[in-house]
Amino acid sequence: MKISNLVIAGLLVGLLSTNALAISSKAGTSAGAFLKIDAGAPRAQALGNAFVSVADGPEALFWNPAGSASATTRELQFTYMDYLQGYKARTLAYLQPIGKTIIGLTVNYMDMDDFDFRDEWGDKNPEVGIPVQNFVGSLSIARGFINQKLQIGATAKYVTERLYRGGNSGGHNHYDNVGFDVGAKLRLVNWLGLGGAVVNIGDKDEMPRGLRLGADLNTRYFTISGEYTKYSDDKARYGVGLEIHIPEDLLQVARFDLRVGYYTRDNTGINTEDSWVEKVGLEETSRVSFGAGVYSGELFGYGASLDYAVTPFGALGTSQQIAVSIQF
User: Fold this and answer.
1) How many C-alpha atoms does 198 have within 13 Å on its Cβ side?
2) Distance between CA 12 and CA 317 in Å, rounded?
3) How far is CA 229 from the centre of its chain?
4) Which has the closest alpha carbon to 218: 261, 196, 246, 189?
């Protein structure tokens, strides 16, 4: 049976995206499904995507650009994500304060390897190379008002997709698009915050436009956050996260955070490959995520942080992400 390799690769990227795992009447109606993957934001991944109201630092550039307005120093972050079925992402984000305004730059390169391509006769086709390559480059601007109680931000981004064409002609198809994100955060009181963002604004047939609305309760020792997410090609989703803080002044070395989250994505079978997933009882769910982070303000005179997140995805495997950042 002859099966188009382009269709297979495209469906895999769409199905593997965080919010596209459910069967929806609008599934597959937008290109750029990879834009829904939480690459560049391990904290968001660990918190069950409940991040829009607590987003800050370089990670905010990938979720809610308004959150970057809280930056007080230059910051550089590198993130590596080992997603699912050989799909990987590498991101680089930079924040530059200019007076009270923050400028942010990001690059995000994603590809898929180890894909078992077959020709029309069912034989392996090793000449395909890399079947899927995606790239996003962005420029963001953000600013805080009323002593940072109100933060506003916007992002312009260039998006390109490269997909293997398949069939007798082979080769790859290229798709190029321009999109925008806008967001805001409001800190009503010290312990209560609100956030919202509209992402992937552009051609609705080329990018999955999304709405994110969230709130958080924040104390010195813990933060509880929640988020409502609705993409144009999927039904509404909900996430909730808990972050436990161990302050730096208590440890006398660094601040340590523990995170756990729950997101209403559909389950994707049973994980039989990762024994540790079975040991913690998560082999049949794709909804729970967790992670940790450590931050030190005095690492050889610089601020530095390390964040990690992991999400079991049932039969699809496990998604892991790690980020390293430095403030200077």
Assistant:
1) 7
2) 13
3) 13
4) 189
CB burial of residue 284 (10 Å; 0-12, 13-18, 19+): middle
Q: What is the pLDDT of residues 193-213, one digit of tens each?
A: 999 999 999 987 789 999 999
Pair 182, 173: CB distance under 8 Å: no
Name the nearest CA neighbour of 130 among 169, 175, 168, 88.
88
Domain ranges of the chain: 5-231
The Cα–Cα gap between 321 and 39 comes to: 8
DSSP 230-258: EETTS--EEEEEEEEEE-HHHHSS-EEEE
Q: What is the pLDDT of residue 294?
A: 96
Write phi, then psi, for 61 (nearest 5 degrees). -65, -25
Q: First CA to last CA across the chain, in angstroms?
A: 57
Low-confidence ranges of the chain (pLDDT < 70): 1-31, 114-130, 164-172
Residue 120 CA to residue 211 CA, distance in Å, equals 41
Tell me the H-state helices in the chain.
5-16, 42-46, 248-251, 275-279
Q: What is the C-alpha separation between 69 and 143, in angstroms, rounded?
A: 5
Residue keyed to tokens 């994603």: 110
Question: Which CATH number applies to 5-231: 3.40.30.10, 2.40.160.60, 1.10.940.10, 3.40.350.10?
Answer: 2.40.160.60
Structure tokens at 80: 């590596």
Q: Look up the pTM and report it.
A: 0.86
Q: State how far the Cα of 154 lies from the Cα of 262, in Å rounded to an integer.
A: 28
